[in-house]
Amino acid sequence: MPKITIIPHSELAPSGAELSVPAGTSMCDALLDNGIDIEHACGKVGACTTCHVIVRNGFPSLSAASEQEEDMLDRAWGVEQRSRLSCQALIADSDLTIELPRYSVNHAKENG
Fold first, then answer.
1. Which helix (H) or strand (E) holds 52?
2. Half-sphere exposure (CA, 13 Å, Cβ side) for 79?
3. Digits of tens for pLDDT over the chain (112 positions)?
4. Where does the record place the 2Fe-2S ferredoxin-type domain (predicted)?
5. Among residues 14, 39, 93, 110, which is most buried (max CB within 10 A)?
6. What was the pLDDT predicted at 105?
7. Nearest alpha-carbon partner for 105 in 29, 42, 31
8. CA 19 to chain centre
């Protein structure tokens, strides 16, 4: 099973984490299933940017981003060339290292 290494994040993974997950799993589901409570305001359908992650290692192994995902990423905070919406990125057989951005654009949370 591929391994996902999470770079420490002050709120979601203060000590970082290492997860072993089955290939074919979305990155968002892998995080949620392992107690990392990444936001996913749209219900994991790729219609927001709250589950945005930056893939530091293993990016080429992920499923290709759709045009809709790329359009949504244009709205994300801190987007980089190796950014993905974790709900749309399917894990292959390669290990990954990901960074959870410090902020997300979640108007419901910000205004609630």
1. strand 52-57
2. 17
3. 999 999 999 999 999 999 999 999 999 999 999 999 999 999 999 999 999 999 999 999 999 999 999 999 999 989 999 999 999 999 999 999 999 998 766 544 443 4
4. 2-104
5. 39
6. 62
7. 42
8. 13
How far apart (Å, rounded) are the C-alpha atoms in residues 90 and 79? 19
Q: Vertex 8, ends 60 and 30: CA angle to 5°?
A: 55
Sheet with 3-6: strands ordered across: 17-20, 3-6, 96-99, 52-57, 83-85
In this prediction, residue 85 carries a pLDDT of 97
Identify the H or E element spanning 20: strand 17-20
The whole-angstrom separation of Cα 112 and Cα 108 is 6
Find, among 21, 76, 23, the residue nearest to 51 by Cα.
76
d(CA 80, CA 92): 21
Q: Which helix (H) or strand (E) holds 55?
A: strand 52-57
Structure tokens at 53: 């992650």
This prediction's pTM: 0.89
